[in-house]
Amino acid sequence: MSARARRALVALYPASWRARYGDEVLGFLDEEHGTGRVPARTVVDLARAAVVERAREAFDVPTAAAHGDATAGLRLVLWGWCACVVGGIGFAKLSEHAAVGVPTAATGGGCDSCYLAAHSLAAADASHAVVQAAALLGLAIVVALAVPAVIVAATRAAAPVRRGIARAGIVAVAGSAVTAGWLAWMAVWARGLTTAQRNGTDGRYELAAVGLAVVTTATLAAWTHVATRAMSSVAPARAARTVTALARMAAVAMAAVAVAVAAWWVVVARNAPGFLGPAAGFRTTSSQWPLVALTEALIVGGAAVALVGAWWRAPTPRRARVSR
Amino acid sequence: MPDRAVAHLPQNDPGLLILLSLAGGDKHGHALSRDIEHVAGVRLGPGTLYGAIARLEERGLIEPLAADGRRRPYRLTGDGLAALDEAVAALRRLAAAGDERLATGTARLRPAPGPALGWAL
């Protein structure tokens, strides 16, 4: 392995760690392997330890019992995100047929079954793009907050805490398996159904869809429980300011999703009220408004909880961890 | 008693091995790795080794000495010595409990003396 590749391995570590131990690790590799190949298990060992060190930049297990509730705000952000995701899935489901039924170039800019006229399509599309971009940003940030906390708690926390996280993880994995199985079963079943049956005229399929929504929500809550349980056993470390900034960005992304979803429904309500009512093509239910209100309430509520968590209960930095 | 002893054992085994190695004299990272492999039969990768060194240094159980090029030796501190002493005592209690149970508690599991195998066949 070249010297450059070895330096690249050490570059996986946080800057402060590299400054303190980087040269020693390179010296270790030189003494152990000369200029020869570094075994794969050593590369894996270094990479695994680098992930842990990166995680410990964000969080650490407090040595003092009186660390307070330093991550309460972050846990609110995670629960807010969970509510937003549930509401967002509902929005995706409710809005999917509006996306299908819009005028296209192929229909000459108009069609009998279209819900949105061409002139209002741009506004709806813009809102949808904001929802997707903000949701992706929020997802990336929430993962970046939760994964380090889980890594640190799983590797550093006391044994009872680690066992609790493991138990919560097993429940979440089981929930994921049930959700995936349910989804696959419904997908196979749906092949034999008509479009109308899949969208409201088949009571059994509708019941199965409700069941899928329940297990999906429960699984999301289970994963959030894993992350918040881990978060409750750690405290912000050197990168506490970055953690706070990320939490605030996530909360703002959720607020952007809430506003964009509301804007989308306003565009639809003004330009295609039929999409929300009983005359909406193959839909047979009386009105979509209750579901629209429920999903929007989940998204707005989640964003509000996240904003409160990110600003009012922000974590505070701990003293520097590595000293030379 | 054994349960209490287990509860007091350090959770980070690489950390205990490093303390044990440094009790025999100051060493830099590579020398630590070699000594631990010789004494305990465990080969610590550099990621695991320096991760444990960082934790021990944070806790004030070891301290770095002046570097010699890329080599930086480490030394056991007074707190480190006390921690090692406590850990070894806990291990000793655990081993004693194990000896005691092997000698008495599992006696019923041992096969009763019988005729020689060749005779029984």
Task: Give an account of the 3D structure.
The complex is a heterodimer of chains A (324) and B (121). Chain A has 324 residues and is mainly alpha-helical. Chain A is built from ten helices and two strands. In chain A, helix 4 (72-100) runs antiparallel to helix 8, helix 4 runs parallel beside helix 9 and helix 4 runs antiparallel to helix 10 (289-312). Chain B has a single domain (2-95), classed as Arc Repressor Mutant, subunit A, CATH 1.10.10. Chain B has helices at 2-7, 13-22, 29-40, 46-58, 78-105, 117-120, and strands at 62-64, 74-76. In chain B, strands 1-2 form a two-stranded antiparallel ribbon. Chain B starts with a helix and ends with a helix. Mean pLDDT of chain B is 82; it is low at 1-9. The chains are: A mainly alpha (324), B mainly alpha (121). At the A-B interface, helix 2 and helix 3 of A face helix 3 and helix 4 of B.
CATH-level-4 superfamily name of chain B? Winged helix-like DNA-binding domain superfamily/Winged helix DNA-binding domain
Rounded to an integer in angstroms, the radius of gyration calculated over CA atoms of chain A is 25 Å
The helix-and-strand class of chain B reads mainly alpha
Biggest sheet strand line-up of chain A: 1-2
Query: Looking at CATH, which topology of chain B would you report?
Result: Arc Repressor Mutant, subunit A
Proportion of strand residues of chain A: under 5%
| Sequence stretches where pLDDT stays below 50 over 5 or more residues of chain A | 279-284, 318-324
N-to-C terminal Cα separation of chain B, in Å?
Answer: 46 Å
CATH domain class of chain B: Mainly Alpha
What strand order characterises the main sheet of chain B? 1-2
Global morphology of chain A: elongated
Biggest interface: chains and residue counts? A-B, 28 and 22 residues
